Each structure stands twice: as C-alpha cells, then as structure tokens.
Amino acid sequence: MSDKLDTKYVTAGRSKKWTKGVVNPPVQRASTVVFNTVAEKNHAMANRAKQTLFYGRRGTETHFALQDAMVELEGGAGCALYPCGTAAIANAILCFVKTGDHILMVDGCYEPTRDYCDTILKKMGIETTYYDPMIGEGIRDLIKPNTTVLFTESPCSITMEVQDVPLLARIAHESDIVVMLDNTWAAGVNFSPFDHGVDISIQAATKYIVGHSDVMLGTAVANEKHWDQLREQSYLMGQCISPDDAYLAMRGLRTMGVRLKQHEASSIKVANWLAEHPLVDHVRHPALESCPGNDIYQRDFKGCNGLFSFVLKQSDSKATTALLDGMSHFSMGYSWGGFESLILANEPKSFNALRTVAHPQFEGTLIRVHIGLEDVDDLIEDLEQGLARYQEMLSA
C-alpha cells in the first residue's frame, strides 16, 4: 500500500472485503441483519465493534469502507460517523465529560460549538473557559484539576488564527487532558493530527470530503487510547449515518486531492490580489504573512484550501450590502468546501458580542470567502466589481 497521499485518495477504503471486486464499495442498506444459526449470531455479537455486520446502527460494509478510508487518510485507530459536523463535535466532547468537569474551548471556535458549550454543557453542569487562540504557554494558567478536554480549531472559524496545536497538546497531556481538534479546514490531510499530539480529530465531512454541497456528514477519528470510548459512547447516543451518504463521501474522496490543489492555487492568487487592493486593510489567509499564526502554518501544514477572510478598512453596512448584492459568481450561503464560490460579511461588533477574550483588533468589515472551482480570473473580476460598488456607495 502506497503512503503517497495522491494514491491514498484513490485507494483508501477500497479493500476487496468491502468492494467485492468492483471499483466502488456497493451501497449496503440495512437495519436488521439476520443470522441462520446461533453460532453466527454469537459471532456477530462478540465482534459487533470490529466491523462485523450486527445491526444497522453499528454500520454496514459501506460505512466500514468509509471508516477505513478516514483512518488511512488521517491516521488514528478508528473513525466514528455522525449526521453532521456539529454532531461530531457535540458527541465527541460529550463522550469525555461528566457533570462537574471543566473544558477549555478556543475563543475563535465555530459558532454552534460555542452555543453548545453555553447551553447544553452548561445545563449539564460542565464549565467552559474560552481561551485566546494564540495563547501558547499561557494555557497552563487555565488548566484546573477538573479539566478534561482541550478543544482546538486551527485555523479558527472566520478570523483564521492558526493555533500552535503541538504546544497546546503537549501541555494538556501533562495533566491527562483529552486534546480534540476541529480539523475541517485542513480536510484531515493538510494537517496530520496524530503527528501533532491530537487525540481526536473531528471534521465536518460536509465540506471538502463530500465536496459537492449535497450531504451533511461528520467524522471523528481517535487514537488507540480513546477509540473504544468514543466508539461505544457515540453508539449509545444513537449516532449513525445513511449508507447513501457514506457512499457519496467515498466518491468525494476520490477527487479531493485535485480539488484541494485547485482551491489552494486559486485562493492564494485571489488573496494576493486582495492584499494589494486599496480598500482592503489586510488578508487573513493562513498562507499569507498577514494572517495571525502564519509561522505556525508554515511549520505544521502541508497546504491550504479555498477558505479565507479579508478585512476592509471601513465598516459601512450600506456599502457592504452593495458589494454583496451584485455578485455574479459568488453566492451568499453558509458552509463551504463545495465546488462553488461563497461570500459572507461579518461586522466587528459581532465578534465582540460573541467572544470573551479574543476580540479582533480591527475595525473594518470582515469578508469571508470560499474560492471555488470557477475560473480564478472571473472570481477576481467579480470581487473587483463588488469592491467598486462598495467604493461608489461610500462616496455617495
């Protein structure tokens, strides 16, 4: 088996025990699995956690193929599947906490992750402390005797700070704290979680793994120490996905390598163009020096993708509306990772209202873009015209 990533995209999860000799693992739909003998049933019972057909919620061979593929790509000992990325985050945390525990959550996390901590976990008597994504060694001061989970997200959602995950993981492990990472931006391949101290790597596979904006899916890959607990407690909480969605994720994997390369090349070209635009204060693309944590990105990441942000020099809601309303190739929409380009605006006050310690040090409107697979010059022209509308409204 090749260890080269471009080959893994094509071969991962395609063991003949799952494909039965055809190219793709067939879609195997099942709730009930039937047995002809007591011995067969007992064997399935004894091996139900070891990719043996037992009951639909434990998975079918279609699910097993996807789980194998994710482990081959990210490393680790096993992969749990969830109906969306938020479910993967929520359940992975819940598998390792109890009432009275304390967790450390990066202040730049995905907004639903924060909402989960502030509502569900709080209701369960689990305390959350938010920390600055660039905290470094200072994380020591936030660890309590009852801290059980350190949650990282790198780059952070929207503002794109790149965290020093290896440093944070090393410090957390000194206190036997479970280190989790939302690894969606790196698609599990541009940042190797288990080489950098992560215990559980979580993804919204909705994004680049599926790649076509038509499936909701979450994954959590765990190392050997934490795999059994993650698997069994996720199962007890009823987490499962449809085999059809698993199949579509497998199909997306086959082209993810070439898609990511194109997303990367186009996004860097657009980011460099934006960095020179007179209306732009700075660009928050992890591959550019202007992004917080770029030095960490250069050290730890193998590449990037199409998602980044840029900050305008001013904040004017009417001008921002003029920019957004007339786009030809960029659409407004939540999520990202598909073949299409997306754009959303965020005002500084929204960050200040949400965050507790990592307040962005800028005053202009932040624009988050996902650079899709359209011709990059068309995308630059679209942004150029949008910024011209923005300037015209400012001058009116």
Automatic annotation (TrEMBL):
Protein name, entry field: cysteine-S-conjugate beta-lyase
Chief site of localization: cytoplasm
Catalysed reaction, written as an equation: L,L-cystathionine + H2O = L-homocysteine + pyruvate + NH4(+); an S-substituted L-cysteine + H2O = a thiol + pyruvate + NH4(+)
EC number: 4.4.1.13
Modified residues (N6-(pyridoxal phosphate)lysine): 207
One GO term describing the cellular component: cytoplasm
Organism: Aliivibrio wodanis
Family: Belongs to the trans-sulfuration enzymes family.
InterPro entries in UniProt: Cys/Met-Metab_PyrdxlP-dep_enz, Cys_b_lyase_bac, Cys_met_metab_PP, PyrdxlP-dep_Trfase, PyrdxlP-dep_Trfase_major, PyrdxlP-dep_Trfase_small
This protein's record includes keyword Amino-acid biosynthesis: yes
Subcellular location: Cytoplasm
Cofactor: pyridoxal 5'-phosphate
